[in-house]
Specification:
Helices cover 42% and strands 13% of the residues. It is built from 21 helices and 14 strands. The strands form five sheets. It has a five-stranded parallel β-sheet with strand order 4-7-10-1-11.
Length: 492
């Protein structure tokens, strides 16, 4: 059945006035809860929040509160705010031509009343879907009242004979144009205090002063704010009246479990293959990248107050995939497989997403990137292999790695590159005695993944401090640690 297009047709359907935006969202959420939806079922795609953040958001909606999402960067605050729009009605009527999007049965402001007076029952109706009822603005210090609320046009007022306090003389900003919807302000503390006052006045008093002229704006909004704790305390603040007006403050967090972090990474990464070349990324790399991010979140070289965004893992996986794709295209391989040496390609994606602490600045972003990668490798190592050093008194000959270390001690090296053809790459690894046997014994990989686990053992032995590694332009060279130190180059 087609939707009504005029006020007369709408009345003929028996349409009733809605209770308000917060009541509408609450009603739809209640329906979902009665149907048995819970946690991440209510907010699909928000992994790891099912037992922590989402229940608090649900409480806020049921209580009819505006919402402040407080957390470090990359904790899905904006995504959570946008997800609230799924609890809006699928489509609602609005008076066509009214910038405040009045309900046809409840016109708001002089513009809406003029339309009804002029057209009567023939007044045109438009239908707003969920996406049209969600508005968003990134707060910056240069945001003005005109951007958010609007500005008075004195020329229009003079030409049309309106008083300057008449809404027909106002060019409305983004907030009034989101009337009867959800409006989100990201990074609220960056918003100048006088702008926050204007927002508070609209929400609490339903009036605002523009250029000293009071205007009455009876808006129906659910307001959602996001803020970073660092900004909240250092770069800006939320004015007390507005903070007091926000009904609920919800703390977000990074994934608490590795599996949650991997799920977010895989879900969000945009890895584009070619029809003739489809890179294979074994799950080992998902664990390594996620543990690298988790290591960065505790590293002394990284500024913990700014956080380590989940976007780091997403970008790192995309960069890894791209590097494998590049090699496959160069060698005409249909299904090139990721290698440990490909992790170097992740550094370009990682270093720009890590804020260095003072100690890290001394080391440099690339060294810090390699450091946290090594920490991630060490964290995953214990899932499959025994400790690199089992006997501190005899660390160079301990455990199952004795033959491998002896081979390197004889002056042998392994030179790997991300440009090597697969056959050459495998041949370089097979030079090391016992390496393949150890990989198969402990990892029990599929045949295609055996070379990867062989290479992973070498990287783990380096991270464990028993062999050396030197970085080249396109790869890595593994060698004996003692000989490497004797050359004066130090541990790479």
């Amino acid at each position: 059945m087609p939707l009504p297009t005029t006020l007369r047709e709408l009345r003929a359907t028996g349409h009733h006035l809605p209770q308000g935006i917060k009541a509408e969202i609450r009603r739809n959420l209640v329906t979902a809860l009665r149907a048995g939806s819970d946690g991440e079922e209510l907010f699909p795609g928000l992994v790891g929040y099912g037992e922590t953040v989402i229940p608090q958001v649900v409480n806020a909606v049921l209580a009819g509160h505006d919402l402040l999402l407080l957390g470090l960067r990359g904790q899905a605050k904006t995504r959570l705010a946008r997800a609230l729009a799924r609890f809006l009605d699928e489509a609602v009527p609005a008076l066509a031509g009214d910038p405040l999007r009045s309900h046809p049965l409840d016109p708001v402001g002089a513009i809406a009343h003029d339309i009804i007076a002029r057209d009567g029952d023939k007044a045109a109706i438009t239908w707003l879907d969920r996406d049209e009822r969600y508005g968003e603005k990134l707060a910056t210090p240069d945001v003005s009242v005109a951007d958010l609320i609007g500005d008075i046009d004195p020329i229009r007022a003079s030409r049309e004979g309106f008083d300057l306090g008449d809404l027909r003389a106002v060019t409305f900003g983004i907030v009034p144009r989101t009337n009867r919807g959800i409006f989100c302000i990201n990074e609220l503390p960056d918003l100048a205090p006088r702008i926050q006052v204007a927002l508070f006045n609209i929400l609490e008093e339903q009036d605002v002063q523009i250029r000293g002229i009071p205007l009455r704006l009876p808006l129906d909004l659910m307001l959602v704010f996001t803020a970073n704790p660092e900004d909240y305390t250092a770069r800006g603040q939320i004015i007390t009246p507005l903070k007091d007006r926000i009904g609920a403050q919800v703390l977000t967090h990074y994934p608490k479990e590795r599996a949650d972090g991997v799920a977010v990474m895989v879900q969000e990464a945009h890895c584009v293959a070619e029809e003739t070349c489809v890179p294979a990324i074994p799950v080992l790399f998902h664990d390594l990248i996620e543990e690298t991010a988790r290591a960065a979140r505790t590293s002394e070289y990284v500024d913990q107050s700014s956080g380590v965004s989940a976007r780091l893992t997403i970008a790192a996986l995309e960069a890894l995939h791209a590097n494998v794709l590049q090699r496959g295209l160069r060698h005409g391989e249909k299904a090139p497989r990721a290698r440990m040496v490909d992790l170097a390609a992740c550094l370009a994606a990682m270093t720009g997403k890590i804020e260095l602490a003072y100690e890290g600045e001394q080391e440099g972003p690339l060294k810090v990137g390699w450091h946290v990668l090594a920490e991630g490798i060490k964290r995953v190592w214990g899932d499959t292999f025994p400790a690199v050093i089992e006997d501190e008194k005899d660390e160079r000959n301990a455990g199952p790695w004795k033959q491998v270390l002896k081979w390197f001690a004889s002056g042998n090296t392994v030179d790997l590159s991300d440009r090597m053809p697969t056959a050459e790459y495998i041949a370089a690894l097979k030079k090391v005695p016992e390496l393949e046997t150890l990989a198969v014994r402990y990892a029990k990989p599929a045949p295609a993944d055996v070379p990867l686990w062989m290479e992973y053992i070498l990287e783990g032995l380096f991270a464990g401090g028993v062999i050396a590694r030197t970085q080249t332009d396109r790869g890595l060279v593994y060698s004996d640690l003692l000989a490497h130190l004797m050359t004066g180059k130090g541990k790479a």
